[in-house]
Each structure stands twice: as structure tokens, then as C-alpha cells.
Amino acid sequence: KNEVEQSPQNLTAQEGEFITINCSYSVGISALHWLQQHPGGGIVSLFMLSSGKKKHGRLIATINIQEKHSSLHITASHPRDSAVYICAVGPGNQFYFGTGTSLTVIP
Amino acid sequence: EAGVAQSPRYKIIEKRQSVAFWCNPISGHATLYWYQQILGQGPKLLIQFQNNGVVDDSQLPKDRFSAERLKGVDSTLKIQPAKLEDSAVYLCASSLLAGETEAFFGQGTRLTVV
């Protein structure tokens, strides 16, 4: 069993739709990270959070420490949001990664 | 601030050849990671440095992979000799404090072994 599980693995949405990607983890953590990876391979850090909720533009990330669960929401999705979204958790000395959610937003 | 720099961006080599990747982390970041990401999978940690010391290299195939971080700044990852299954994106990341602070990733090096 992986330390970090993401769902769904693949997601196709129509432009403008509200999108949710889920992440569950089994290890104790000090922080959870949401990362975005475009087809070229580079990874961008979207959020780092250890409690509550963070918002950046159309992106919202929430975390429930008791339930060991986090969600990434994208409001008013756009084709440029098409990417792989990766959840990573840090128990303090390393990162554990989910396998990613591949999102395709169709115009 | 400048991001994590990696080079080259792409590399194609034949099996049994050698290859080296370079990473320059964000200035002041003590922790540096090398990850291997095979197509369709999440990144897998190869080696983690804290300054110039190795914290974790348990998943590094030491018979063919080596990495160093001289002076606790730049790092190189080498594969010698390469195998077909080494085809992947090699990502370098750095952070101030391992796991507890935001990690910054480089653009990655896409290696194709033919």
C-alpha cells in the first residue's frame, strides 16, 4: 500500500467545470504539498499546508489532519489547467508522493 | 528568486553509455533531492542530501548510479552504464528544511536510453 493515494487517476472536464482531486495519506506529516506538473516535466509547487485551507486564484486546497485527507479544487477550470497534479506529504525528513492525477480540460 | 536549475533538459544515449545530470539548488537550501519519475508514475526518491551529507540513498541503484554534492551546493547524478529501464525524467528539488518547508523543483532532465 502506498503512503499517499490520489483519486481520480485521470480526469477529463469541460472548460468552466469545478474540479476536485483527492489525496489520502497514511503517515504522520508535518506538511502536505500540492504540485503541478506540465507535459514538459517541470514541477511547480502550488500549495504547502499543514492545516485548514489555502486559496490562490482559482485554486483552493484543504486539509483535514484528523482524517488524513486533502483536496485540491479548481474553480472555473480552463484548458491551461491541464496537467498532472501530485500530492506529496512530508513527515519531517522526506517526501512521499502520490502517483498523480492527470487532468485534461476540454475547451 | 532564482529557481532550481537543471541541465541538460533532454538527453538521448545508447544503453551501456554513461550520462551525468547537474543541479543547482536555490541559494541557501540545505536539502537537495534527486527523484526518478518513470512515465505514469509519481517521483521516486533516489537520494537526499542535507548540505553535503547523504541522508537517504536507500533506493539508489548503487551498482550504476552515483551522486555527489560537493561543498553542499551543486549536485551531480551519474548513471554508468545506463540501461533501457533508466529512461525517465530525473528531477532535482531543494528545500530549506526537509519535508517541512516548501520544496522547489527544477524542470527535470528527460533521459531516453535506446
Care to give the gist of this entry?
Chain A is mostly beta strands.
Tell me what the structure shows.
The complex is a heterodimer of chains A (107) and B (114). Chain A is an all-beta fold and 107 residues long. In chain A, 0% of the residues lie in helices and 59% in strands. Chain A has no helices and eleven strands. Chain A has strands at 4-7, 10-14, 19-25, 31-37, 43-49, 52-56, 59-64, 69-74, 83-90, 96-97, 101-106. In chain A, strands 2, 4, 5, 9, 10 and 11 form a six-stranded mixed sheet that branches. A five-stranded antiparallel sheet of chain A has the order 1-3-8-7-6, with no helix packed on it. In chain A, strand 9 and strand 10 (96-97) form a beta hairpin. Chain A is globular. The mean pLDDT of chain A is 90. Chain B is mostly beta strands and 114 residues long. Chain B is built from no helices and eleven strands. Chain B has strands spanning 5-7, 10-13, 19-24, 31-37, 44-50, 53-56, 65-68, 75-79, 88-95, 104-105, 109-113. In chain B, strands 2, 4, 5, 6, 9, 10 and 11 form a seven-stranded mixed sheet that branches. A four-stranded antiparallel sheet of chain B has the order 1-3-8-7, with no helix packed on it. The radius of gyration of chain B is 13 Å and the shape is globular. Classes of the chains: A mainly beta (107), B mainly beta (114). Chain A binds chain B through residues 4, 30-31, 33, 35, 40-45, 48, 86, 88, 90-95, 97-100, and chain B through 33, 37, 40-45, 48, 55-56, 89, 91, 93, 98-108, 110.
